[in-house]
Amino acid sequence: MANEAHLSPDDFSSVVTAITSAFGDPTRRRIYLFAREHPDGVTAAEVAAHTGLHANVARHHLEKLAAGGHLEVRSTRGSGTAGRPSKRYAVGEGAPSLDAIPFKRDDLALTLLARAIDLLPREVAEQMAEEVGIEYGRALASSFEGQRSFRNALQAVAEALTAHGFAAHAEGTGDTMRIVSDSCPFAGSVASPVICAVDRGMVKGMLATLYGDTSPETALSRALGDDTCVTAVPVRL
Question: β-pairing, 168-173 with 176-181?
Fold first, then answer.
């Protein structure tokens, strides 16, 4: 775009840093590119239909893009006047082009995180990691619509984890539901099993916000040599 040629080296570096942070998740980049194709903006429902994501997860990504200044939020009403106006998310004028920018995960940050974890006693590190996960999970779920059942809430949690690179799904086994993650965004960079406490905390924080307090436990972990990562949650009816 024309305005990119006038950026100073420092400004350009800042733009690239901001874009890389926002679009390190390929799903979020895909949503942004979809929005660029629709000058009038897109809704969470339209993004969900295009990507196959749950509407709550689509809305979360759109809100993140808006918070970073990459999308503008516009309120519109349908033919009637009742109810809240719907939100449309549109790319504003002067938005930087993404086509030539590579999007890669910042392995250096994860490596430094692993080193910091290794310097802490195991119990302290796990407690801190879980508290961080709980806080983030609560913040993440605060933008979701209310769930009508425990199982629906758990499904929303799995979809949110998937949007963050965990490729997660919920499944039932008797009196326990499990969130199975077939992929881990930390794989290869953070080998410590302590990082599993972050995942567990995210599940706990999201479920507490969507449904009520639960007691999820790490059942399987790649960091401990298992083939997949599993968080077990007692069923609440």
Answer: antiparallel
